[in-house]
Design a protein that fits this description.
This protein is of the alpha/beta class. The protein has helices at about 10-25, 35-45, 60-70, 115-125, 175-185, 205-215, 220-240, 270-280, 310-320, 330-345, and strands spanning about 25-30, 50-55, 75, 100-105, 125-130, 140, 145, 150-155, 170-175, 190, 195, 245-250, 255-260, 265-270, 320. The chain has two domains: about 10-215, Aspartate Aminotransferase, domain 2 (3-Layer(aba) Sandwich), CATH 3.40.640; about 220-345, Alpha-Beta Complex (Aspartate Aminotransferase, domain 1), CATH 3.90.1150.10. The chain contains ten helices and 15 strands. Bound molecules: pyridoxal-5'-phosphate. Pyridoxal-5'-phosphate binds near residues 35, 63 and 134.
Length: about 350
Protein backbone atom coordinates (compact mmCIF):
# COMPACT_ATOMS: atom_id res chain seq x y z
CA UNK A 1 0.00 0.00 0.00
CA UNK A 2 2.06 2.96 -1.23
CA UNK A 3 -0.82 5.35 -0.71
CA UNK A 4 -1.04 7.43 2.48
CA UNK A 5 -4.83 7.45 2.19
CA UNK A 6 -5.70 4.96 4.89
CA UNK A 7 -9.28 6.17 5.25
CA UNK A 8 -11.62 6.10 2.23
CA UNK A 9 -9.42 6.37 -0.89
CA UNK A 10 -9.04 3.99 -3.84
CA UNK A 11 -9.44 0.62 -2.07
CA UNK A 12 -12.68 1.81 -0.55
CA UNK A 13 -14.01 3.17 -3.85
CA UNK A 14 -13.18 -0.11 -5.56
CA UNK A 15 -14.91 -2.12 -2.86
CA UNK A 16 -18.01 0.07 -3.16
CA UNK A 17 -18.05 -0.42 -6.90
CA UNK A 18 -17.58 -4.19 -6.65
CA UNK A 19 -20.27 -4.61 -4.02
CA UNK A 20 -22.66 -2.41 -5.98
CA UNK A 21 -22.08 -4.62 -9.03
CA UNK A 22 -22.44 -7.86 -7.01
CA UNK A 23 -25.76 -6.74 -5.56
CA UNK A 24 -27.06 -5.04 -8.69
CA UNK A 25 -27.34 -1.76 -6.80
CA UNK A 26 -26.99 1.62 -8.49
CA UNK A 27 -24.85 3.13 -5.71
CA UNK A 28 -23.01 1.70 -2.74
CA UNK A 29 -21.62 3.97 -0.02
CA UNK A 30 -19.49 2.41 2.69
CA UNK A 31 -19.31 3.52 6.31
CA UNK A 32 -17.92 2.44 9.68
CA UNK A 33 -20.55 -0.18 10.67
CA UNK A 34 -23.95 -1.67 9.92
CA UNK A 35 -25.37 0.38 12.75
CA UNK A 36 -24.07 3.55 11.09
CA UNK A 37 -25.47 2.37 7.74
CA UNK A 38 -28.95 2.42 9.33
CA UNK A 39 -28.26 5.76 10.99
CA UNK A 40 -26.96 7.38 7.79
CA UNK A 41 -29.89 6.06 5.72
CA UNK A 42 -32.40 7.56 8.12
CA UNK A 43 -30.41 10.81 8.41
CA UNK A 44 -30.46 11.08 4.62
CA UNK A 45 -34.27 10.93 4.76
CA UNK A 46 -34.38 13.54 7.51
CA UNK A 47 -35.96 11.18 10.02
CA UNK A 48 -35.95 12.64 13.51
CA UNK A 49 -38.01 13.71 16.53
CA UNK A 50 -41.76 13.31 16.05
CA UNK A 51 -41.34 10.64 13.38
CA UNK A 52 -42.24 6.98 13.71
CA UNK A 53 -40.49 4.09 12.00
CA UNK A 54 -42.11 0.65 11.91
CA UNK A 55 -39.83 -2.33 12.47
CA UNK A 56 -39.54 -5.79 13.98
CA UNK A 57 -38.87 -6.55 17.66
CA UNK A 58 -36.96 -9.72 16.73
CA UNK A 59 -33.61 -8.40 15.53
CA UNK A 60 -30.28 -7.08 16.74
CA UNK A 61 -30.58 -3.96 18.88
CA UNK A 62 -29.05 -1.66 16.24
CA UNK A 63 -32.13 -1.84 14.04
CA UNK A 64 -34.31 0.00 16.52
CA UNK A 65 -31.45 1.68 18.38
CA UNK A 66 -30.60 3.70 15.29
CA UNK A 67 -34.22 4.90 15.00
CA UNK A 68 -34.20 6.03 18.63
CA UNK A 69 -30.73 7.60 18.36
CA UNK A 70 -32.21 10.04 15.83
CA UNK A 71 -34.99 10.95 18.25
CA UNK A 72 -37.61 9.04 16.25
CA UNK A 73 -39.89 6.41 17.74
CA UNK A 74 -39.56 2.73 16.89
CA UNK A 75 -42.96 1.09 16.43
CA UNK A 76 -42.75 -2.68 16.79
CA UNK A 77 -44.88 -5.06 14.75
CA UNK A 78 -44.99 -8.80 15.49
CA UNK A 79 -43.25 -11.42 13.38
CA UNK A 80 -44.32 -14.38 11.31
CA UNK A 81 -43.58 -17.36 13.59
CA UNK A 82 -42.20 -19.48 10.72
CA UNK A 83 -39.81 -17.05 9.04
CA UNK A 84 -39.09 -14.81 12.07
CA UNK A 85 -39.47 -11.81 9.75
CA UNK A 86 -41.90 -8.93 10.28
CA UNK A 87 -45.49 -10.00 9.54
CA UNK A 88 -46.58 -7.79 6.65
CA UNK A 89 -50.28 -8.32 7.42
CA UNK A 90 -49.86 -6.52 10.75
CA UNK A 91 -48.03 -3.44 9.50
CA UNK A 92 -50.97 -1.39 8.24
CA UNK A 93 -52.59 -1.24 11.68
CA UNK A 94 -49.38 0.35 13.03
CA UNK A 95 -49.26 3.18 10.49
CA UNK A 96 -50.12 6.63 11.87
CA UNK A 97 -49.85 10.17 10.53
CA UNK A 98 -46.34 10.27 12.07
CA UNK A 99 -45.04 7.17 10.29
CA UNK A 100 -42.17 7.99 7.93
CA UNK A 101 -40.70 4.61 7.05
CA UNK A 102 -40.90 0.85 7.35
CA UNK A 103 -37.64 -0.88 8.31
CA UNK A 104 -37.89 -4.62 7.60
CA UNK A 105 -34.98 -6.85 8.60
CA UNK A 106 -34.00 -9.89 6.51
CA UNK A 107 -33.43 -11.91 9.63
CA UNK A 108 -30.88 -14.77 9.69
CA UNK A 109 -30.33 -14.31 5.94
CA UNK A 110 -33.89 -14.81 4.68
CA UNK A 111 -35.66 -12.03 2.82
CA UNK A 112 -38.63 -10.43 4.50
CA UNK A 113 -41.86 -10.72 2.52
CA UNK A 114 -41.11 -7.57 0.54
CA UNK A 115 -43.91 -7.32 -1.99
CA UNK A 116 -46.74 -6.51 0.44
CA UNK A 117 -44.42 -4.21 2.41
CA UNK A 118 -43.43 -2.24 -0.69
CA UNK A 119 -47.07 -2.08 -1.84
CA UNK A 120 -48.27 -0.78 1.53
CA UNK A 121 -45.42 1.74 1.71
CA UNK A 122 -46.26 3.06 -1.73
CA UNK A 123 -49.98 3.40 -0.94
CA UNK A 124 -49.22 5.28 2.30
CA UNK A 125 -46.34 7.41 0.99
CA UNK A 126 -43.75 5.76 3.27
CA UNK A 127 -40.11 4.95 2.61
CA UNK A 128 -38.72 1.43 2.96
CA UNK A 129 -35.25 0.95 4.43
CA UNK A 130 -34.00 -2.64 4.36
CA UNK A 131 -31.80 -3.94 7.17
CA UNK A 132 -29.82 -6.47 5.16
CA UNK A 133 -26.98 -6.76 7.69
CA UNK A 134 -27.45 -10.55 7.88
CA UNK A 135 -28.49 -11.08 4.29
CA UNK A 136 -25.84 -10.03 1.77
CA UNK A 137 -26.61 -11.94 -1.45
CA UNK A 138 -30.05 -13.16 -0.29
CA UNK A 139 -32.65 -12.86 -3.01
CA UNK A 140 -36.31 -12.05 -3.44
CA UNK A 141 -37.80 -12.66 -6.89
CA UNK A 142 -34.24 -13.28 -8.06
CA UNK A 143 -33.09 -9.80 -7.06
CA UNK A 144 -30.67 -9.13 -4.21
CA UNK A 145 -32.21 -7.82 -1.00
CA UNK A 146 -31.13 -4.32 -0.13
CA UNK A 147 -32.05 -3.09 -3.63
CA UNK A 148 -35.84 -2.92 -3.18
CA UNK A 149 -36.31 -0.10 -0.71
CA UNK A 150 -34.97 3.45 -0.79
CA UNK A 151 -31.90 2.14 1.05
CA UNK A 152 -30.33 -1.22 1.83
CA UNK A 153 -28.09 -1.40 4.90
CA UNK A 154 -25.27 -3.92 5.22
CA UNK A 155 -22.72 -4.84 7.88
CA UNK A 156 -19.20 -6.25 7.57
CA UNK A 157 -18.96 -7.19 11.24
CA UNK A 158 -16.82 -10.37 11.41
CA UNK A 159 -19.81 -12.67 12.14
CA UNK A 160 -21.72 -11.61 9.02
CA UNK A 161 -21.54 -13.57 5.75
CA UNK A 162 -19.08 -11.03 4.36
CA UNK A 163 -17.09 -10.08 7.44
CA UNK A 164 -13.99 -7.92 7.73
CA UNK A 165 -11.36 -7.98 10.44
CA UNK A 166 -13.29 -5.35 12.36
CA UNK A 167 -16.27 -3.07 11.93
CA UNK A 168 -17.59 -1.91 8.59
CA UNK A 169 -20.86 -1.18 6.83
CA UNK A 170 -22.43 -0.04 3.60
CA UNK A 171 -25.59 1.58 2.28
CA UNK A 172 -27.03 0.93 -1.18
CA UNK A 173 -29.45 3.14 -3.07
CA UNK A 174 -30.68 3.70 -6.62
CA UNK A 175 -30.91 7.46 -6.15
CA UNK A 176 -27.79 9.44 -7.14
CA UNK A 177 -28.74 12.45 -5.04
CA UNK A 178 -29.25 10.31 -1.95
CA UNK A 179 -25.95 8.52 -2.60
CA UNK A 180 -24.22 11.89 -2.67
CA UNK A 181 -26.00 12.87 0.53
CA UNK A 182 -24.73 9.71 2.23
CA UNK A 183 -21.17 10.51 1.12
CA UNK A 184 -21.47 13.97 2.65
CA UNK A 185 -23.15 12.76 5.85
CA UNK A 186 -20.38 10.25 6.57
CA UNK A 187 -17.74 13.01 6.64
CA UNK A 188 -19.51 15.39 9.03
CA UNK A 189 -21.65 16.92 6.32
CA UNK A 190 -18.76 18.34 4.38
CA UNK A 191 -18.20 18.32 0.62
CA UNK A 192 -15.20 20.60 0.72
CA UNK A 193 -12.76 20.05 3.57
CA UNK A 194 -13.59 22.18 6.63
CA UNK A 195 -16.79 23.55 5.04
CA UNK A 196 -19.81 21.87 6.59
CA UNK A 197 -23.15 22.24 4.85
CA UNK A 198 -25.18 19.85 6.95
CA UNK A 199 -24.84 18.02 10.25
CA UNK A 200 -23.25 14.62 9.71
CA UNK A 201 -21.19 12.06 11.57
CA UNK A 202 -17.73 10.54 11.27
CA UNK A 203 -18.38 7.14 9.75
CA UNK A 204 -15.84 5.93 7.25
CA UNK A 205 -14.50 2.59 6.20
CA UNK A 206 -10.73 2.35 6.34
CA UNK A 207 -8.60 1.11 3.46
CA UNK A 208 -7.35 -1.91 5.39
CA UNK A 209 -10.86 -3.23 5.92
CA UNK A 210 -11.73 -2.51 2.30
CA UNK A 211 -8.68 -4.44 1.10
CA UNK A 212 -9.64 -7.45 3.24
CA UNK A 213 -13.27 -7.30 2.14
CA UNK A 214 -12.29 -7.11 -1.56
CA UNK A 215 -10.33 -10.34 -1.22
CA UNK A 216 -13.22 -12.04 0.60
CA UNK A 217 -15.91 -10.76 -1.75
CA UNK A 218 -14.49 -12.95 -4.52
CA UNK A 219 -15.42 -16.02 -2.43
CA UNK A 220 -18.80 -14.85 -1.18
CA UNK A 221 -20.90 -16.77 -3.73
CA UNK A 222 -19.08 -20.04 -2.96
CA UNK A 223 -19.31 -19.48 0.78
CA UNK A 224 -23.03 -18.79 0.43
CA UNK A 225 -23.47 -22.07 -1.48
CA UNK A 226 -21.58 -23.80 1.33
CA UNK A 227 -23.96 -22.38 3.93
CA UNK A 228 -26.97 -23.44 1.85
CA UNK A 229 -25.59 -26.98 1.50
CA UNK A 230 -24.98 -27.15 5.25
CA UNK A 231 -28.54 -25.98 5.93
CA UNK A 232 -30.03 -28.60 3.60
CA UNK A 233 -27.89 -31.25 5.19
CA UNK A 234 -28.99 -30.24 8.70
CA UNK A 235 -32.61 -30.58 7.59
CA UNK A 236 -31.97 -34.05 6.16
CA UNK A 237 -30.02 -35.23 9.23
CA UNK A 238 -32.61 -33.88 11.69
CA UNK A 239 -35.34 -35.57 9.69
CA UNK A 240 -33.45 -38.90 9.53
CA UNK A 241 -32.90 -38.76 13.28
CA UNK A 242 -36.67 -38.45 13.74
CA UNK A 243 -36.26 -35.14 15.58
CA UNK A 244 -38.87 -33.14 13.76
CA UNK A 245 -41.47 -33.79 16.45
CA UNK A 246 -39.12 -32.30 19.06
CA UNK A 247 -37.47 -29.46 17.24
CA UNK A 248 -38.52 -27.33 14.30
CA UNK A 249 -35.81 -26.63 11.74
CA UNK A 250 -36.20 -23.45 9.70
CA UNK A 251 -38.75 -24.09 6.95
CA UNK A 252 -37.59 -24.33 3.36
CA UNK A 253 -37.65 -20.79 2.01
CA UNK A 254 -40.46 -19.89 -0.40
CA UNK A 255 -39.48 -20.62 -4.03
CA UNK A 256 -39.05 -16.91 -4.81
CA UNK A 257 -36.52 -16.46 -1.99
CA UNK A 258 -32.87 -17.49 -1.67
CA UNK A 259 -31.81 -17.84 1.98
CA UNK A 260 -28.11 -17.18 2.77
CA UNK A 261 -28.17 -18.71 6.29
CA UNK A 262 -26.19 -16.24 8.32
CA UNK A 263 -27.78 -18.36 11.03
CA UNK A 264 -29.44 -21.79 11.05
CA UNK A 265 -32.05 -21.44 13.75
CA UNK A 266 -34.10 -24.29 15.18
CA UNK A 267 -36.90 -24.10 17.74
CA UNK A 268 -37.26 -26.23 20.83
CA UNK A 269 -39.62 -25.99 23.80
CA UNK A 270 -36.71 -27.29 25.93
CA UNK A 271 -34.32 -24.77 24.42
CA UNK A 272 -32.33 -23.84 27.53
CA UNK A 273 -31.84 -27.45 28.69
CA UNK A 274 -30.90 -28.47 25.15
CA UNK A 275 -28.40 -25.65 24.96
CA UNK A 276 -26.77 -26.68 28.25
CA UNK A 277 -26.58 -30.28 27.07
CA UNK A 278 -24.94 -29.27 23.78
CA UNK A 279 -22.49 -27.04 25.63
CA UNK A 280 -21.41 -30.03 27.76
CA UNK A 281 -20.72 -31.88 24.53
CA UNK A 282 -18.54 -29.00 23.35
CA UNK A 283 -21.05 -27.77 20.78
CA UNK A 284 -21.37 -24.00 20.71
CA UNK A 285 -24.82 -22.55 20.08
CA UNK A 286 -26.20 -19.06 20.37
CA UNK A 287 -29.54 -17.45 21.09
CA UNK A 288 -30.65 -14.77 18.65
CA UNK A 289 -32.43 -13.11 20.42
CA UNK A 290 -33.15 -13.84 24.09
CA UNK A 291 -35.06 -10.60 24.71
CA UNK A 292 -37.30 -8.90 22.16
CA UNK A 293 -36.49 -5.26 21.56
CA UNK A 294 -39.87 -3.98 22.81
CA UNK A 295 -39.04 -5.51 26.22
CA UNK A 296 -35.47 -4.20 26.46
CA UNK A 297 -34.81 -1.84 29.38
CA UNK A 298 -33.46 0.74 26.93
CA UNK A 299 -36.94 0.90 25.36
CA UNK A 300 -38.93 0.85 28.61
CA UNK A 301 -39.93 4.46 27.90
CA UNK A 302 -42.02 3.21 24.98
CA UNK A 303 -44.35 1.51 27.47
CA UNK A 304 -44.62 -1.85 25.69
CA UNK A 305 -45.93 -4.81 27.70
CA UNK A 306 -45.06 -8.52 27.79
CA UNK A 307 -47.62 -10.43 25.73
CA UNK A 308 -48.02 -7.57 23.28
CA UNK A 309 -46.07 -9.27 20.48
CA UNK A 310 -46.64 -12.97 21.22
CA UNK A 311 -44.95 -14.54 18.18
CA UNK A 312 -41.70 -12.68 18.78
CA UNK A 313 -41.82 -13.33 22.52
CA UNK A 314 -42.36 -17.07 22.08
CA UNK A 315 -39.56 -17.20 19.50
CA UNK A 316 -37.18 -15.52 21.96
CA UNK A 317 -37.83 -18.42 24.37
CA UNK A 318 -37.49 -21.22 21.83
CA UNK A 319 -34.88 -20.34 19.20
CA UNK A 320 -31.40 -21.83 19.10
CA UNK A 321 -28.79 -21.18 16.42
CA UNK A 322 -26.67 -24.20 15.49
CA UNK A 323 -23.16 -23.81 14.08
CA UNK A 324 -23.34 -23.09 10.34
CA UNK A 325 -20.47 -21.90 8.20
CA UNK A 326 -18.96 -23.05 4.92
CA UNK A 327 -16.00 -24.89 6.53
CA UNK A 328 -18.21 -26.94 8.86
CA UNK A 329 -17.41 -30.62 8.29
CA UNK A 330 -19.88 -33.44 7.63
CA UNK A 331 -18.67 -35.18 10.77
CA UNK A 332 -19.18 -32.05 12.88
CA UNK A 333 -22.71 -31.65 11.60
CA UNK A 334 -23.41 -35.29 12.40
CA UNK A 335 -22.12 -34.81 15.95
CA UNK A 336 -24.44 -31.85 16.43
CA UNK A 337 -27.47 -33.85 15.31
CA UNK A 338 -26.42 -36.94 17.31
CA UNK A 339 -26.11 -34.79 20.41
CA UNK A 340 -29.60 -33.35 19.88
CA UNK A 341 -30.93 -36.90 19.39
CA UNK A 342 -29.19 -38.02 22.62
CA UNK A 343 -30.74 -35.15 24.52
CA UNK A 344 -34.24 -36.20 23.50
CA UNK A 345 -33.49 -39.93 23.98
CA UNK A 346 -32.49 -39.26 27.61
CA UNK A 347 -35.53 -37.14 28.24
CA UNK A 348 -37.95 -39.87 27.09
C1 LIG B 1 -25.14 -6.90 12.79
C2 LIG B 1 -26.43 -6.23 12.61
C3 LIG B 1 -26.57 -4.82 12.59
C4 LIG B 1 -25.46 -3.88 12.94
O1 LIG B 1 -24.29 -4.08 12.31
P1 LIG B 1 -22.89 -3.62 13.01
O2 LIG B 1 -21.95 -3.65 11.87
O3 LIG B 1 -22.61 -4.63 14.06
O4 LIG B 1 -23.09 -2.26 13.55
C5 LIG B 1 -27.80 -4.29 12.32
N1 LIG B 1 -28.87 -5.07 12.10
C6 LIG B 1 -28.80 -6.41 12.14
C7 LIG B 1 -30.02 -7.20 11.87
C8 LIG B 1 -27.58 -7.03 12.41
O5 LIG B 1 -27.52 -8.37 12.46
Amino acid sequence: MGSQLFILGAEVRQLEEEIGRTLGAGFAVSCASGSDALLLAMMALGIGPGDEVITTPFTFFATAGSIARLGAKPIFVDIDPETYNIDPTQIEAAVTSETKAILPVHIFGLSADLEPILRLAESKGLEVIEDAAQAIGARYNNQCVGTFGKFGCFSFFPSKNLGGAGDGGLVTTEDPALAEKLRVLRVHGSKKKYYHEILGINSRLDALQAAILRVKLVHLADWTKGRQLRADRYRALLDQAGLNGHIAPPPQPAPHMAHVYNQFVIRSRERDALRDFLRQRGIPTEIYYPICLHLQPAFAYLGCQPGQLPNAELASQEVLALPVYPELKDSQQESVVHAIADFYARKN
